[in-house]
Design brief:
Order of helices and strands of chain A: HHHHHHHHHHHHHHHHHHHHHHHHH
Shape of chain B: globular
Radius of gyration of chain B: 14 Å
Distance between the termini of chain B: 36 Å
Oligomer: heterodimer
Number of helices of chain B: 5
Largest interface: A-B, 36 and 33 residues
Strand content of chain A: under 5%
Largest sheet of chain A: none
Low-confidence stretches of chain B: 94-102
Mean pLDDT of chain B: 80
Strand order of the largest sheet of chain B: 1-3-2
Strand content of chain B: 5-15%
Order of helices and strands of chain B: HEHHEEHH
Radius of gyration of chain A: 35 Å
CATH topology of chain B: Arc Repressor Mutant, subunit A
Shape of chain A: elongated
Largest sheet of chain B: 3 strands, antiparallel
Helix content of chain B: 40-55%
Helix content of chain A: over 70%
Amino acid sequence: MLETPLRQAATVLLDSAIRIAPPEAREWGHAMRGELSYVQGPWATLMWGLGGASVMAKHSLISLLMPGHQGMMPGDELFAKRIPLRKVALVAGAGCVLASLLFFAAPPFRQALRVALNPWRFMLHEIANRSPQSGFLALAKRAEAQRDPEGMAFCAVRLWDGREAAHLAEEAVRLDPTLLWVYAFVGSRHPALPETGPWVEKLERWDPQNALFPLIRAQVVERAEFRPGGWWRPTEEQKRALQSAMAAAFQSPRFDDYLDRLAQVNRRVVARYRYYDPYEVESRPQFGLHAYAFDSAQRYAISLLQSGAELEARGDRKGARDQYWSVARFGQMVDSQGHTALEHWAGTSLQAMAYKQLQASFQKENNQVEAALFGYLAAKFGPVSGSHAGLPEESAFGSYVARRNAAVVQLSGLMILVFAGLLVAATTILMVGSLQGGSVSPSVDGAGKQRTAQRAKPVATLVVLSSAAGMLFSCVTLYLTYRPYWYIFQTAIQTGSSSQTSDFHLFLMATQTPPGVPDRFIPLLLDSLFYAGSPGFLFYVWTAVTLLGVIGLAVILLRHLHTHGPANRLQHHSRVQ
Amino acid sequence: MKTPRLSRETCLVLQRFLERPTDWRYGYELSRATGLKSGTLYPILMRLEKYGLLEARWVATEDGVPPRHTYRLTPNGLELARTQLAEARPSWAVRQPALSGG
């Protein structure tokens, strides 16, 4: 059944190879082609065709790399068929390695490699019980040593350690009082800090019309009383505090999350310290308010809408619509003036709720035009058909493209390491083989060593060439895949533009875990291994794996020495002779 | 004079030629006799032919089937093969039984 197609495939393959072969080699191609009709068996025919095609391809490659070189045998090395080809392979391999190394001179490539290896770096930090922000902490120390308020502010808003963040924020504001807004970021990120309350008071005096601070106050109340593993039941006092904070937020005429100011600081600090870590610099999703601030806002909005409905039931249509409009206005303000995906999502959700109530209200009044308008707006911002529905990031290309690119970048980065390892191993074998071949005496044992070295050389040469080519291919793939993100990142730093940064955020999020591993899997695994009663378990697993690998290599080496050792070779030769 | 290096595969090919020195041999026949694949055998034949150790000719076949290339050693090739095989035997003959089965 396979006879005809495989024979045809072999014929086509060989004919194609003959066509690209140099003229002096074509006759031999036709010779192999002539034998094809007599080869028995479909697979043997295909293998014959493949072998013939490889011969023609070798000649094509040699004529391409060494134009004017006739055939494969220079000089008087009559039977040494591997030497010229090996030289060509080694030169080509060296060229690939050099080209790969040149990529390291390009900043986008270095950043791409860092991003590609990020999940493994994170794992190593966890295993070594080091903070993944250790490099960033060093930057914070530098900024503090230089008394640089912007540098300290840059670090304060990003540090995971609340105490250290508070210390840096206070130092930054002390040196430069115009950086007071830094308190909003640190307080929002670490609401449990005792400094947060006084900070919010200062901020409210400094920027009294901003809705951000009442929302932070609400967040502090919710966060302070949050108990994991159960529903939070606020006390009456907390309820009053939340109510007061939300009323103030809904009455505020503006909303400023200060991300614009932070972007300006980012631009200056990144350039000043040449700190181009995209995870730390371009981490907008982790700034801004937490989700529970908007949960409170939503609960408050629902209470306003309910009170509006009650007013409407009592015939107070104007009072009811004022309530609905206060929710819609707050939603519009947060949506249009906010910068994070969460802020946009919260703003549009609130608008949808308010417009739905307004639609119902106008329908009751038989005002179909207004009802249709608010119906349209409710649908536009609503969770079912709205453009923002369930969309945490507004990106141009979507999360699929980000995940795919992240996987390509991560695999390319890994393959660079794998190929580099293979390259080092194969080069070592070649060098050891050359030393052995050049140093042994012309005895039987020496000849045996030379032959062993000679036998290892073609395989090692092949590994060198294929690893170098693979490494170059991986470098090119990594560079080309990451380059658009590099531009987005650079544009964001240099101009403060947030255009397409959502795509970059999605990409960065997708690179947090190795390809194929679900989001948050590695952190959860590490948490469960390190912090859930089995401290150091992963360390022992990796130690065991490494030891087994070393033992395996030692066994292979011992077996090789035993089989190819001097005593065995002498025995072998005496048996042959 | 520099001693040419003799690969194990080349020795296998020369040995097959020496078995019937005057006969013309086909490539596929040599491949089966030596166990060498086309990708290994033909470069050897090409080198031998280039250095005047092997002669090749085309043989017409039935209609519709491409002509075949046949080979035999030249007198120089025979002389060199005998000398080289006698010198090189200890080094290449070791693994020959494993290969000759193919």
